[in-house]
Each structure stands twice: as C-alpha cells, then as structure tokens.
Design goal:
Blueprint: E1 4-11, E2 16-23, E3 28-32, H1 38-47, E4 51-56, H2 62-65, H3 68-75, E5 79-82, H4 86-90, H5 97-100, E6 110-112, E7 117-120, E8 123-129, E9 138-142, E10 147-151, E11 154-155, E12 158-159, H6 169-180, E13 188-191, E14 197-198, H7 199-205
Parallel strand pairs: 3-4, 4-5, 5-6, 10-13
Antiparallel strand pairs: 1-2, 2-3, 7-8, 8-9, 9-10, 11-12, 13-14
C-alpha cells in the first residue's frame, strides 16, 4: 500500500500550521486546521492535483478556523471537531475572534469523541481528546505513518497557553502525560505552530 505523506502550509498573523495528509499516488487529501484564506488553501491543493475529502479541527481558536467556511464552500468537504469543543466553535468571544476584530464561528458537520476512528481518503485516523489548551482540544494520530498532529496541545519544547477561555494547565499537562507520552517514542509530532518534533524529544527535554 502506498505511503501516507504530510504537507504543511503556514498561514495567518499567528503563523499557524495547516497540514494536509494524503496517500501517495492518490488525489484525495485530509486537511487539518484551515488557518486562514480558505480560497488560497483550496487553490494551492487543487494546483497540486488534490481534492479535499475532509477538514479536521484540532481546536477552534480563531487562527485555526478562519479559513474553514470558505474552504468548506469551495471543496464541499465536511468539517469535524471534538464534541467538547462546541462552546469554542460557536462563540466568537470564547474562540478569541471577536477580540481580533474579525468575528468567526464554525459549525462542524460531525462531532467527534475520544478514541474514535475515522477512515477518510484511505487513511485511518484516531481521535485523541487532549483538553487543556481549550476544553475540546484534540490531536489526530496516524498510526500507520507514525504521525501525530498535535494542534496547540504540544509544541517542540513547549505547550499551548491556557490563559484563554476554557483553558486549564492541569488538564493540559495530564493530557500530554497520559494521552501523548504513551505513544511510541519515534512518533513524529506536527504542532499547530513551529517545527516538528518527536514524542521522544518532548519526553526528554520538554519541561
């Protein structure tokens, strides 16, 4: 079976990482966190020969959702988020977009739960609930490829901030220790901001 590949676009004022995953040799992609400029994302993927089969959110802060509606409209792809993230998706003040002067909310087509498996574009995806950065933050684990898309839960050498609405540092630390650090150490971690890392590196060096 062809390998699963991952690509990245870094977009918006917060330099948010938008990822697309695909099985080599196919024209279908799974898009994670459409940070901004949904039309640009759509055109960039179309130019590479991809159609968008699904849009997944790791959480619903403004810098991760600004491109969602436009990308949905252009691609026709369904939008997914963790069920616990409803208050962040639906309230512009909770997701911080109101404070930026550009109010934005999203309404996913499907709400996910912890431990759920999705199979999209020939790729199996495990949903891992990791509350802390927001109440419904989650990560997506691609076991076959050894990839984890961690959103703003875990960064290289750092973790997501918890001083925004619904954030909780105690829950964030537990999420990382109990949900992420139990994954294979060679797992490659692709965060919402900054460079990729591994579970091994973060277990050793992330204070």
């Amino acid at each position: 079976m062809a390998e699963i590949k991952i690509g990245r676009m870094t977009l918006g004022a917060c330099s948010t990482n938008c990822y697309f995953l695909y099985r080599e040799g196919t024209g279908e992609a799974v898009l994670i966190d459409p940070a901004d400029r949904g039309a640009d994302i759509y055109e960039a993927l179309k130019g590479k020969g991809f159609s968008v089969s699904a849009i997944l959110l790791t959480h619903a802060h403004f810098d991760h959702i600004y491109g969602a509606k436009q990308l949905q409209e252009l691609s026709g792809a369904p939008l997914y988020a963790l069920e616990a993230e409803k208050p962040v998706c639906r309230d512009a003040y909770v997701n911080i977009s109101a404070q930026t002067g550009r109010k934005c909310t999203v309404e996913p087509d499907e709400w996910l739960i912890d431990g759920q498996y999705l199979e999209i574009a020939g790729i199996k995806i495990r949903v891992i609930a990791t509350p802390g950065h927001t109440v419904g933050s989650c990560c997506y684990y691609f076991e076959e490829a050894g990839f984890l898309v961690s959103g703003d839960t875990l960064f290289a050498g750092s973790v997501g901030r918890t001083d925004f609405p619904t954030g909780n540092m105690g829950k964030l630390v537990r999420s990382i220790r109990e949900k992420l650090f139990v994954l294979p150490e060679e797992t490659k971690v692709y965060p919402g901001h900054g460079d990729a890392t591994t579970i091994r590196e973060e277990k050793l060096y992330n204070a």
